[in-house]
């Protein structure tokens, strides 16, 4: 595609020869003739001088002879450019001969159902949704339009996914919540989990992530939220819109997480809490109580990030601090003798 | 069902109009006419005044005009009520046409084998057990009666499950233990893992949980134990009865965990340890050595919970403590000059 | 097999009656007549006196009347002995009638393709490789020779596995990297992940482990590296040769991990870092920055292991340290009055 045609699609200003054609997007080190590259991290500006790319996406105010597509968010524009120049190979609509689709299941126009998929009774699958091989939908599942469920995904009965939901391989939606009541003998009786999971529009669920169904009502993942791989979402958790949970995060049951929250890798959140809008938790943080909106927390138990960094710095010098206290005690004894 | 009929089934005392009929169980906020609700957490007592439920399960000594089922453990009674009023939809017995069942595999009466299930040579599946679609049993697997294996569960050769075992979606039982020996060149040679996994009666295994087979003998999960999602159980681990491991717990190889132990979310336990009966570990605790029975531990490395809370409180004030020490040093210098 | 025949195969010196036959390997407690056992941990030497094994593998310099195979690395020799005496049951070559193999996929000699396996367009599977039931290979996947992919493994398009790669059940290779760019409205747009995953020869991937594809280039796992279960490898991560990642480790995107690195259970590594050759991180360590080759680190944030142990020891006595400081302040006040 010519740069002059691509620039408006990316909301970018063309600078240089608009007749240049680019076919692919490539990283700045690997790019060659015919490639479009991008710079979104100032650390990589020096590479502009040596890249072999035919054109580059970058921020305003950067000097380079390379034909450029100038915009405010090069990283975002790169994402769009990939989608435009290299549209994903989409499997053809149709139902594989080996798929087991219940007679009363309703499949929208252009749906792709892969090999060995199981679609249970009363399921609804929206237009153009792709179910890769080996996806299993129990009875009564509703999936919206333009979704993609990768191979090995399991969705339990009654759960609902909105539109444009992407689910990476092996994820489980609607497993039983971890509900048990101790009886008189100290044994655990199972609490039946009769609620469902609701995943709103534009959510992405990572590989091997588990979202438990609620005991009675619903576990809900808000619009636009992104869950990374190997994440655990307990029963009756509610997550707001545009929130991000990185790899291996765990959220225990009945906790409410707000909008635009960011939980970094391996963060753990206890149950029955409220995490306010815009909260950020750094990697491995352990959150045992409510966190007000807008706070940035770290450590276990979670403290304000800045406080935690300062305390951690002193932690690394604790043996020395202990020695200083011992020395003070010795000096005080001497002074008392005098 | 009439309250007068339900009360004895729940071991509860009826208070009020026994002719009232309830059809479903619902949470106290969502309940409407015809619903039975429950209160097990004192925090929710105020909602009794406004709930629209027809009846409520609760503890003795609570004043309410609502028809009540009074018992010592409302949470447990609620669990039983759900099972009685809304018995789970059980798939009909039979073997799906697409299931691959080895000719010498033995299926008990009333077994349900779903679509695309693979049952290997010499397998035994007990009466009324349900294998949901896409379950894979390698050769020589033995599953007891009244079990339910959800879709995507994988059980490796020779492993044994008892009666009434529930396995959530995608769990893996019998993966190779992580056994490698370093050779002279610094490379890792694989130690063949020829042992098995034994899961005793009434165990529940969470979604996407992995239980490794032993190198030579067995990895064993004791009767009634509950494993949450995304849990890792290393080779040759032994877990006692009625123990609970919450989400994303990891237990390294050859460790023995006792009875009635509770490990909260994301706890890590090193290998070759003994964790005594009744131990509790709070979330994210890291256990590097044996823990005597009955202890309550927290932190990494694990301390007594109370000690850890106190130390954590001082940790949050370490910069101030360091300042106070510096100030003391300054004052001591002044005093020494005088 | 006679000991005299087995000894040279294990690079061991025979001591005692070479005509003794052993059929199996067993642990020192469980071994009986006809079994070969081993001692690799000095803690178990006392058991030599009471074991019922017919022969034992052990280090030089240990006194015992038992027929012995003496060598420098009994643990490694035991691994070889298992493979020799009890060669793993290998499924017969052939393609199951229910497997869906694309017409242009190329399968090497002696390949085993199990029930319900899906092999996509343009895939290549090397000689003698075993694909257990329900494995899914998207289009363009290349798998080397002598590999074993256990049931439920998913490999996404274009990914490449070398020779002798073992993948435990349910693992996912090539899931989308966690790439999102925030737009002007604060919403997340997906960055298409068009790169691949390359897994080199002799790697083992644990059960339910996820290895994300790169955005543009590749995520690469070096020769001989071993990944345990429930591990998360982010997009564009590079791992060197002969490195070991234990259960539930998480490595964020674009980090480079060197050779012969050991990350213990539940370690977390931030993104865009360099972890040098031979680094060791103890369990649950959180690594937020580069780590030079050869260091042994612990804690969050990571410190040198020795420093962390010392600081942790003082941490456990922080309430007392605070008291001592308070007492010093009191004594200083008294002294100042005098």
In short:
With 338 residues, chain A is an alpha/beta fold. In chain A, strand 37 and strand 38 (303-304) form a beta hairpin. Chains in contact: A-B, A-C, B-C.
Protein architecture, described:
Three copies of one chain form a homotrimer. Chain A is an alpha/beta fold and 338 residues long. Chain A has two domains: 3-85, Udp-n-acetylmuramoylalanyl-d-glutamate--2,6- Diaminopimelate Ligase, Chain: A, domain 1, CATH 3.40.1390; 94-307, Hexapeptide repeat proteins (UDP N-Acetylglucosamine Acyltransferase, domain 1), CATH 2.160.10.10. Chain A is built from four helices and 38 strands. In chain A, a hairpin with a 5-residue loop joins strand 20 (180-182) and strand 21. The longest helix of chain A is centred in the C-terminal third of the chain and has 20 residues, at 318-337. Chain A is flat, with a radius of gyration of 26 Å. At the A-B interface, strand 20, strand 21, helix 3 and helix 4 of A face helix 2 and helix 4 of B.
